[in-house]
Design a protein that fits this description.
Distance between the termini: 44 Å
Number of helices: 6
Structural class: mainly alpha
Largest sheet: none
Length: about 140
């Protein structure tokens, strides 16, 4: 079983800061809940898109990437963008939709046979933190 490269672990954990900061900030400054929720939504959509890009990058390592796989790798970006288009009255649904999308992407990564062994374990940790933060912020919407 291979070990997660330290630099990857460091930046992965650092990427949880923008997930965890909005719920903490909402607790401290509830009058700014809308702004903190908006920041979290954008960060979650960016990370979802990043994960799709990581899978695209892995897929194109093959000299003849499968067209269906390349198409699938584009879905996280499209889903994140579509979730952001919802009107403000659907903030809780947006938070939960992005949490669900991150969970689905995690399952895809976890079951992959083409990614390094440490990647699924890292994604488990990071997805748990991201989904917990999104759920926490949804609960703070009142």
């Amino acid at each position: 079983m291979s070990k997660t490269p330290p630099i990857v672990l460091f930046y992965g954990l650092a990427g949880l800061i923008p997930f965890l900061a909005p719920p903490l900030a909402t607790l401290a400054f509830p009058d700014f809940r809308w702004q903190f929720t908006e920041a979290l939504l954008w960060w979650a959509a960016i990370i979802l898109s990043f994960l799709g890009g990581a899978r695209w990058g892995a897929a194109v390592q093959n000299s003849q990437p499968a067209p269906g796989l390349i198409g699938l790798t584009m879905l996280p970006s499209i889903i994140g963008w579509l979730v952001l288009l919802a009107p403000p009255k659907y903030r809780v649904a947006q938070l939960l939709a992005l949490a669900a999308a991150l969970l689905v992407h995690f399952l895809w990564d976890w079951t992959s046979r083409t990614l390094p062994g440490w990647y699924g374990r890292l994604r488990l940790l990071l997805t748990a933190g991201a989904v917990a933060a999104l759920g926490w912020q949804a609960a703070l919407q009142g």
